[in-house]
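Dear colleagues,

I hope this message finds you well. In preparation for our joint manuscript, I am sending the Bax inhibitor-1/YccA family protein (Paenibacillus aurantius) sequence together with its predicted structure, so that both groups work from identical material. I would be grateful if you could confirm receipt.
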Amino acid sequence: MNLQQSEKAADWEREYNSSFHKLLRMFTLSILISFLGTLAGTQVPPALILPLIVVEFIMLISAMFIRRRKKSIGYLFTYAFCFISGITLYPTIAYYASTGGAGIVTSAFVVTTVVFAGLTLYAYLSKRDFTFLGGFLMIGLLTLVGFSLVGMFTGGFGGTLGLTLAFFGVVIFSGYILYDISQYKHGLTEEMIPLAVLNLYLDFINLFLSLLRLFGLSRD
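The corresponding structure tokens are as follows:
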């Protein structure tokens, strides 16, 4: 009986690891697809960027409704979003590259990768459950979005306030990495992996943008 239980436990552990590892592989692919989108963004007319941002927003809202119905969004949906996101990222990346040099973009990406990998490893190996952060992170995210909307109509925030908001963004999206990995490390169904990939992609990209802004403002 103990042998059977051990075999079942071993089978569960293999399944547990396989689903999470597949999630990480699909997430890595999402970053590569986004990079291809950024390369494509060099050929996209500036007039199309805003409509594509609207498309991104609609896709995110659609993903939320699909998740509420406990249905899968599919890999095509996820990777289409990542590609479009890469296109709309290009103007921001080009701006910081032109004002601070390509090194600032590279540094932000490298630091984002290191932070993401470190937090993922910590959340995966730690016995702590970070899902309790959900409510605090949502409040922080709504606050950050509120300030961002105000900044759109006031020309943005610079100086100490801008640095504070950028640092706040780094903290929020670092927290979301811990939160999401805590949810997924115990395994997830095949149908839910595309949505999980989308969530991790958003964590990564928003952390990257926050660090890019932080480095850019610090340089100024």
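For the figure legend, we might mention the following. The mean pLDDT is 86. Residues 2-219 form one domain.

With kind regards,
E.M.
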